[in-house]
Amino acid sequence: RVRVALQVEEASGAVTVALRVVATRKSGARRRTAGSMLPHEELVGCREGCLNRSLLMFCDARVCPSGPTCSNRPFQCIKQPRVVPLRTRERGWGAKTLEDISEGAFVVEYVGELIDDKECEQRLWHAKRTDETNFYMMEITTNVVIDARHKANIS
């Protein structure tokens, strides 16, 4: 069984979505994990044998056999600087840091709605027709774009 809690927060026309998924198992059911099972003395993080890593997916510390030492959870393991939203007069929304950041340091994961090139083009034409000059899209690869206009985190 899976229990889903969805928290939606609207601010200035944008929607911030926080999703929490809690999986429960039937009594007597055995727990399966996607991570590599490591002997206790070798619990130093997931390695190449980790199924999640080989599928290009991140582990969840709550179920990974490596627990907090898992090295396949990049965004959860990185200390992120404090960031707040910033409204600019001519460039729309941005983010402002509240502390110094070293060059090349990770700041925040860019989150938004995944759309294809066709949907991206339709949204850009709609923005042009409605004189919207601010858009928040990032092309990830061919035919995959993140649109952070309406569904995003602070990025």
Automatic annotation (TrEMBL):
Q: Where in the cell is it found?
A: Chromosome; Nucleus
A GO BP term here is: methylation
GO terms for MF: histone methyltransferase activity
Keyword set includes Transferase: yes
User: Where is this chain primarily localised?
Assistant: nucleus
Asked if the Swiss-Prot or TrEMBL record annotates the protein with the keyword S-adenosyl-L-methionine, the reply is yes
Where the record annotates domain AWS, the positions are 44-76
Keywords, ordered alphabetically: Chromosome, Methyltransferase, Nucleus, S-adenosyl-L-methionine, Transferase
Q: Name one Pfam family in it.
A: SET
What cellular component GO annotations does this protein have? chromosome; nucleus
Chain ranges of the SET domain = 92-153
Domain of life, per the record? Eukaryota
Tell me the protein's name: Histone-lysine N-methyltransferase
